[in-house]
Amino acid sequence: xxxxxxxxxxxxxxxxxxxxxxxxxxxxxxxxxxxxxxxxxxxxxxxxxxxxxxxxxxxxxxxxxxxxxxxxxxxxxxxxxxxxxxxxxxxxxxxxxxxxxxxxxxx
Amino acid sequence: xxxxxxxxxxxxxxxxxxxxxxxxxxxxxxxxxxxxxxxxxxxxxxxxxxxxxxxxxxxxxxxxxxxxxxxxxxxxxxxxxxxxxxxxxxxxxxxxxxxxxxxxxxxxxxxxxxxxxxxx
Lengths: 107, 120
Known about the structure:
The structure holds two protein chains of two kinds. By secondary structure, chain A is mainly β. Chain A has strands at residues 4-7, 10-13, 19-25, 33-38, 45-49, 53-54, 62-67, 70-75, 85-90, 97-98, 102-106.
């Protein structure tokens, strides 16, 4: 079973600044890594799949990188609507697994 | 519009049963893997189960629900089900159904969820 670990738990960022979120897998997941955004009271929303491919309608300020065990989600210039919790998910092996999340809050 | 709508949640006593449904529309339901994902209050999402497309979908389960939960689908009704038996307090969560992308199991469409509370 693959365990996904995200860091940091909370990231305090000012609007307009860059945010860098990390996700580490306990074993290689190749590029089978997705990122989701979740706001209170809503379902998660797919941002990135294949480690670096933006989902339909996702702004270019969101970018993903990495392969194997180490992955990064970067938000280049935080907008007010980007303050939320972000989760990574591996889909290389069953069982599918999510990280515990990084909360991006307003500094 | 591609849409998933869950129903069937509620309050149930420990040891009880519940069946969740997920009605799909706007895409060829039979062609896609669909998962159930749950999220306990204040926690991250936890994948629960998935079923492949086609008439005889193969199934996968998280260890935490194996032997207690059964996933199934009715392609003629574009509906996914989750039969939950022997429910425990730790099964309390929001339950989402989610559609996988083509051939890969990231989740590109999610329902709004249905709430399951297991309590005496």
